[in-house]
Amino acid sequence: MHRTKLLLLVPMLVGYMSSASAVGPGYLGNLSGNTYSIGHTFSALAHDSPFVDTYIFDIAPQSVTVGTTVTINLDMPFFPRPQFELLNMSIKFTDATGATIYDTDNQSNAADYTLAVSATLPAALGYKFVVAGDVTGNLGGSYGGVLQALPVPEPETHTMVLAGLCLIGTIWRRCKNAAWA
């Protein structure tokens, strides 16, 4: 019985796993079902300058829920002033034109090191994930995160899952009754 449960669990887990690729700003391709490690490191030459990084991606063939969490700032406390710091950070999901904003998050104060956005996006080309801020660390600054898209289950999928669970329950009940007979 335990083997049957394991055999049913393995395909479900495999369906949710995908490999991550590290990328910088630019075109990512079709994000559906993929996970990308995103980030950018700025040198001391970028001190006191603003930046806008844009990651462009497509969603196909069906709607997906896209989400990310971006972490900023790395500090070495034994030096005065923050060495690697980004301030006034903001992240957002937009359409190809930038006119429609699906979700946005802004850094509320200097101690706010994590920004997160998520949105359900219909199938389309040219979505943008925009990261903006100011490099204020005397040695530069950096941010990093993960951009991931998971399919939104269609109503037929829920029906199939429910039917499968009913079938498994029926089989389990018959096996249990047969063991008692």
From TrEMBL:
Organismal lineage:
Bacteria, Pseudomonadati, Pseudomonadota, Betaproteobacteria, Nitrosomonadales
Signal sequence span is 1-22
Alphabetically sorted, this entry's keywords are:
Signal
Keyword Signal in record? yes
Question: Which InterPro entries does its entry note?
Answer: Ice-binding_C (IPR013424)
Q: Which parts pass through the membrane?
A: none
> Mind telling me what this protein is named?
PEP-CTERM motif-containing protein
The UniProt record lists the keyword Signal? yes
What is the organism field in this record?
Answer: Nitrosovibrio tenuis
